[in-house]
Design a protein that fits this description.
The complex is a heterodimer of chains A (328) and B (367).
Chain A: E1 2-5, H1 6-20, E2 24-28, H2 44-48, E3 53-55, H3 60-72, E4 76-80, H4 91-98, H5 101-104, E5 114-119, H6 134-138, E6 144-147, H7 151-163, E7 168-173, E8 180-183, E9 200-203, E10 208-212, H8 216-229, E11 234-238, E12 241-243, H9 247-257, E13 260-267, H10 272-284, E14 293-297, H11 308-311, H12 315-325
Parallel strand pairs in A: 2-3, 2-4, 4-5, 5-7, 6-7, 10-11, 10-13, 13-14
Antiparallel strand pairs in A: 1-8, 6-12, 9-11
Chain B: H1 37-62, H2 76-83, E1 91-93, H3 99-104, H4 109-117, H5 126-129, H6 140-155, E2 161-166, H7 173-184, E3 189-195, E4 198-199, E5 202-203, H8 215-219, E6 223-227, H9 231-246, E7 252-257, H10 276-283, H11 287-297, H12 303-325, H13 345-359
Parallel strand pairs in B: 1-2, 2-3, 3-7, 6-7
Antiparallel strand pairs in B: 4-5
Helix pairs in contact in B: 1-2, 1-11, 1-12, 2-9, 4-12, 6-7
Classes of the chains: A alpha/beta (328), B alpha/beta (367).
Chain lengths: 328, 367
Amino acid sequence: MTTLTLAKAINEGLRRAMEDDPKVLIMGEDVGKLGGVFRVTDGLQKDFGELRVIDTPLAESGIVGTAIGLALRGYRPVCEIQFDGFVFPAADQIITQLAKMPLRSLGALKLPVVVRIPCGGGIGAVEHHSESPEAYFTHTAGLRVVACSNPADAYVMIQQAIRCDDPVIFFEPKRRYWEKAEVDTSPEAAAGWPDLHTARVVRPGGDVTVLAYGPMVRTCLEAATAAEEDGRSVEVIDLRSLNPLDTALVTDSVRRTGRCVIVHEAPVYSGFGAELAARITESCFYHLEAPVLRVGGFSTPYPPSKLEEHYLPDLDRVLDAVDRCFAY
Amino acid sequence: MTIDASRGVQAPPELVQLLTPEGERVEHPDYDIDLTPEEIRGLYRDLVLVRRIDLEAVALQRQGELGIWASLLGQEAAQIGSGRALTDADMAFPTYREHGVAWCRDVDPVKLLGLFRGVNHGGWDPVEHNFHLYTIVIGSQTLHAVGYAMGIQRDGAEAAAIVYFGDGATSQGDVNESFIWASVFNAPVVFFCQNNQWAISEPLEKQSRIPLYRRASGFGFPGIRVDGNDVFACLAVTRQALRNAREGNGPTLIEAYTYRMGAHTTSDDPTRYRVADELEAWKLKDPIERLKAYLFKNQLADQAYFEAIDAEADALGRDVRKRCLEMPDPDPLAIFDHVYAHRHPLMEEEREQFAAYLASFEGSEGR
C-alpha cells in the first residue's frame, strides 16, 4: 500500500500503462515539461520521451483529431483536455468521429482513445474551469463515460480505460486531486480489480439510496454520516461508470430502500440524473415510497466563484433532499 | 464600406502543367514525368472507367436506387493522378467524393454505393486498402491523416499519408489545425486540396482572398498549384510531395485547380448559382479529352483501343448497376452492431427489447 493523492494515483496509473504497452501515448497542452497544469503527467515526458508524451499545439480539436489518426495507426493515445470547459472545441471530433468511426467501419476499426477531462467546481476558478459536461457525452453512443472519485479507483480505472478498445471519456474530480488515500499499486492486486463499468456501494444503508459519482461521492458520504446522527441509514453508491451504467446494482439497492436521491454537480435539468431517475422509476416503480429526487447545480451557467458554494450541492442540500424523501 | 475582398492586390498564380488542354506535352522546370506508353494508357483507362462508374451512380440515384450521390465529374485527373502516385504503404484519407482514389486503392465501386444507398455508413475495410472511410463532416479527416502520419513517424516506416479535401474545407478550423500540427511535428503528410471552384453554391472568393496553395507558406511548408485536369502533372507533383514526406522533409499542400462539372450532389441545382459559360469554358479543359488527344497524336493508341476501353466501361457500368440492385437491405437488428468493440449492456438491452417488439408482429399483416 502507498499513500497517494488522486492526481498522483492517475500519474502512477499512466506510468504503469506506458510501461506495459509501448503504444500508449500521452498528448495535450503542457503535459510535457510542466507535467500538466494539475501535474497529473508529472515526470512522464522525462522518463518516456517526447515521442510518447507530446506537448501539442493549443487546439483541442487538433488533440482529439490527431489522437484518432494515431489510434488508426495502432497507438493508444491518452488525451488531456486541460479544463472541462475547453472540451467543446473538441466536441466535433469526439462526437462525429471518435464515437462513430468504429460503427462506420462495420467493426473493422477500433479507436482505443482516452480523453481525460478534469471536471467540476470548488476551486475558485474563472469561467469555463468548473463545469460538469458529462451528459453531453453519455448522450453520445459509441463513447464509454467513467468518473473516478478517489485515488485507489483512479489508479485502476485509468489503466482499464487505456486497455479498452472503445473510446473512453475519463472524468477526474479536480477539487479532489489533492486528497490522499491508500492505493495498492502491487502488480498482484490487478487480479482483484473490479470491472471498469461496475458501480460500488461505498456505504451500506437501509433507508434511502444516494447515487453519486466523481466529486460528489465524498460529499454524499459526509451527508450519510450526518444523517446517521438523525437516525437515518443512507446507502451511498459510487456509480463510477455512467455509460454503460451498472443498472443491476442501482436497482437492487433502490428496491431495498424504496427511496432514491441522485446527486451531481451538473445542472439538474436534462442532466445525467434525469436518465437515472427515469430508469429507476421504470424498474423500481412498485418499490418506491417517494419520487426519485435530484440534487445538482442550478439550470444556469456556472456562477462566478464567489457564488459557487451556493451553486454546488453540499452536505446540507443532500440532507434536505433526503428529508424530502421521507415526507411522502 | 466595401466588403469586396477581390479588391486586394494579388500576384498571378503559378500552375504546374505537363499536358495542355489540347493534348500537347509541355515542360516544367521543377516537375517532369517519364511514363511508358503502357502506363499512359493505364491512366487513360482509369479516367474513363471512374467517369463511367460515376455516370452509373448518378443514373442509379435518378432512378431512386441511391439516396444521393456526390459526382466526381471533371475531377478524374486530380484523383487518378494523385491516387496513382501512392505506394501500397501510403494511407489515403478521402472526403465523400474520392471515387477515383478509391478505384486506385482497389476498393470495389459497389462498396462505395452502400453508403449512398443507405445500407451502411461505409462498407470497406480501410486497413485492407489503406484507404480510409469517407468522411462527411467537412475537413475532419485532415487531422486524422496528420495523426496517422505522426504514427508513421513513430514507427519509422517508409510511408506517407495523403488527405483529400475541397476548397470549402480550407475554411474549417480542423483543416487549419491540421496544417499547424503537420508543420510543427514535420509529419509525413500530403494535403491534396481539389479546388473545384465551388463549395455547393459558394464560389472560392467566399473562402479565400488568396490562392489556396499560398496558405501553406503561412504555416511553414510548401504549397503548389497544379492543373487538376492534367493527370500527368497531378501524378508528378503528388509523387514528389509524397517522396518528400517519406524522406522526412515534412508536409506539402497541393492545390489541384479543377472544376466540379456536375452538381455538388444529386440533390443540388447548380443552375441557381452559376452561369453556363463557365461550364462551357471548363469543358474545353476536360481531363479525358486532352489525354485522348495526346495518345492519338503520338500514336500511342488507336481507334480500336479507345473502343475497347469504352466497351470495358460499359460492362463495368452494367456490373455496378446489377450488384447495386442486388445489395440486400440490412437486418433491423444491425442497428446495434459495431457501436462498441466490446460488449455493452445497453446495446444488448435495447436489441433484446426491439427484437421482442418486432417478433410481436409475426403472423400479423402489414409487417
